[in-house]
Amino acid sequence: MKRGSSRMDSTTLSQLLGKYRQQRCTEAELQLLYRWLDAVDAHSQEQLAFTDEERQQVKAVMLARILQRPVPVRRSGGLLRKWLQAAAVLLLIGTAVYFLLGRTKTTVHGERWVTQQTGAGQTLRMILPDSSVVVLAPNTTIQYADAYGVRVRALRLERGKAFFDTRSDISHPFTVTAQGITTTVLGTSFTVENMAAERVCRVSVATGKVKVASKARAYGELLPGKRFTVQAQDDLVMEDEVSVAEDVAWTKGELVLRNANLGQLVQLLEREYAVKVTTKLDMKAGSYTLRVPANTSLEELLVILRRISYQPKLHFTHKAAVLTIY
């Protein structure tokens, strides 16, 4: 490779990627990768002579390296500790207040139901009366009977996504219903996602086993690492595999996409950042893979997306609460 050039053969790229993963790249070698990445924006696929997989590989590795770099923190001895203690108290108070404000009760057919919801960028960990744990993703609404656990353990996921870590109780099966699709378990951990606009329900299992069915028919059982995607309107079901670690990463403060199309990226942006996304691009196009901390700002995420996107290359304008992708 010529000095200052953006061209690399596959052997050189593989060697650099190997060193990159081991965090052994010199600054000069990092610059080689950065120049190659910049060249993706300025040259055609034929000129660079790299496959889409190679492009995605180097971008993903570079992104991971960037996110793994420690963030410097200004320290000021005892004063810092006092600020951290105050912040911890405020966080606990804020969480309790939000839990109470987001919780309402309604009566349906003589039975009282508790509704709990989250807003954009907010997650909430709930402990149900039977000690089962529910983690709500942003923009999620869930309901459960006020008498939960007395006769049944039934919940309704009205919108959004939730992770459930349930307590075993053979006499009281735990059920979650979304888009008319009911997931039944005795004791396990799993995720249900209600994509209300698309009328799609997704169920994936982290531990144990669940049964998934509609009123019309049973779809079958799911084991760890398996997922059902059900199109409720057409009663169509697709089964695929997922990484359990990535599937539950959002419950641990991470945002993860794996080979997501533009439509799935838009859903993440609207769910996490309280923006309305508009675009004329094909929502089924693209393949985006990223894993970032949940506290990544929108501006930081857009910079990353500009870097890693390809076919189509994404550009953004952000004004007030509207994000335009072109």
Description:
With 326 residues, the protein is α+β, with helices and mostly antiparallel strands. α1 packs parallel to α4 (52-68). It has helices at residues 10-21, 27-42, 45-48, 52-68, 78-101, 244-247, 262-273, 298-308; strands at residues 103-108, 111-117, 124-127, 133-136, 141-145, 153-165, 174-178, 181-185, 189-195, 200-207, 210-213, 218-222, 226-231, 236-241, 254-260, 276-279, 288-293, 316-319, 322-325. The chain contains eight helices and 19 strands. The protein has three domains: 1-71, no CATH class; 94-247, Jelly Rolls (Sandwich), CATH 2.60.120; 253-326, Phage tail protein beta-alpha-beta fold. 22% of the residues are buried.
Give a summary of the structure in a few sentences.
The protein is of the alpha+beta class and 326 residues long.
